[in-house]
Each structure stands twice: as C-alpha cells, then as structure tokens.
Amino acid sequence: xxxxxxxxxxxxxxxxxxxxxxxxxxxxxxxxxxxxxxxxxxxxxxxxxxxxxxxxxxxxxxxxxxxxxxxxxxxxxxxxxxxxxxxxxxxxxxxxxxxxxxxxxxxxxxxxxxxxxxxxxxxxxxxxxxxxxxxxxxxxxxxxxxxxxxxxxxxxxxxxxxxxxxxxxxxxxxxxxxxxxxxxxxxxxxxxxxxxxxxxxxxxxxxxxxxxxxxxxxxxxxxxxxxxxxxxxxxxxxxxxxxxxxxxxx
Length: 250
Description:
Elements: H1 10-30, H2 37-59, H3 63-85, H4 94-112, H5 119-150, H6 152-160, H7 165-178, H8 182-190, H9 198-207, H10 210-240
Helix pairs in contact: 1-2, 2-3, 3-4, 3-5, 4-5, 4-10, 5-7, 5-10, 6-7, 7-10, 8-10, 9-10
C-alpha cells in the first residue's frame, strides 16, 4: 500500500481552493473579518511554499547551503518576534533569546550524532526548533511587556521597598512569561493521545515505521521544550532589565 500523500496536481489545487472558499464563506456568515482573508493567506502561503521548495531542493544537497538557509530562517524569526513584541527597536535584542534557544539544542543533537550533519536532516529539525523558540519568545515578550504596562503600580511599589529594577519588574512578568511555555508542555503531555504532530506523521509516511516515527517525535518535542525554556528565560531577563521595553519608536 502506498503511503504517498498530497501529490502536487489538479486534485490538490481543487481541494485547497474549495477549503479556502469554504472558510471565506464562514468568515462572511459569522462576520469574523473580511471574507477574502483566508483565500489571500492561502495564496500567499502557496507562493511562499513554492519558492521555499525550489530553494530547499538545492540547499539540501550541501551543508553550507543548508546553514545559509537556517541563517535566513533565523533572521526572519528574529524580525517576526520583534514585530509581535511591539517594543520598537529594542525588540531586536530578542534575537539573543532565539539564539539561546536554538543554541541549546542544535549543537547537542549534532555533536551526539542523533541528527546527522546533513542538510536533509539539519534544515527540518533546525526549522522546527527555531519555530518553537520564535513562538515562545514572541509570546513571552508580549505578555511580559503587557504585564508591566498593566501592573506598573506594583513595579513602583516594589521599587519603593528597595527592590532593584530587575527584581521589581520580574515580580510581575514571571507568571505572564511562563504562560508562553504552556502550549509546548501541553503538546508533549498529550502527544499520541490528542494529537499526532507533524514530525511523527512525516516520518511514519516516509518510513512506514511507527517506532521510528515515535523516536523522532519525542526527540523533537523534548528539544522544543529545552529551546523554548531557554528562550523564555532569556526573554524574561531582557524585559526585566529593560533592555527590551515599550515606548521606543521604530
């Protein structure tokens, strides 16, 4: 039995078009937003994936080109996190948090030999880890800065009691920032029971081995937990020390 999935072709285009139009109809009926939001997003996603597919086809053949692709992905993730944090130019420092998350995981995977030093393995694993670190960093930064804005009276009270600026701000951001880790924790706790994540499904379809798919998925999930934990910890420090802050014009 063939395990091939979603061959490029007319059938795939028709199904995706029908789903996008159906979502647009629901948007219209429920008055969620402009009905063309989903079709536009689908077209943009298709165009981006087509371009990425062409680039990756060449990049996967050489380690240096794979490293270049990862560097571009890191730059894009840094820009995305900065925009979501709404902290002006100071948000550029969030790239340090991303570097901490990725740097804690990828070298360990490569040096141990668990992930082979080949483009075909480095780019997918690196992309997943980077994406998870980006999401956690963005959420932690935004929620921390929101907490400081909403509870600034508590920060001032802590300062008046003699706490340092860092400790005063940390009192209000610790809980808010730690919420950024909940999606990753929930995904790990419920994997196999509620969801079958992409890495598991991808390896299962490619190899047909559920055991190998499970091994790859737990590697990815634990790596994500480490990357996100490191990224959030660094983000908290950057916000607590006012390195990343609101009110700075872009």
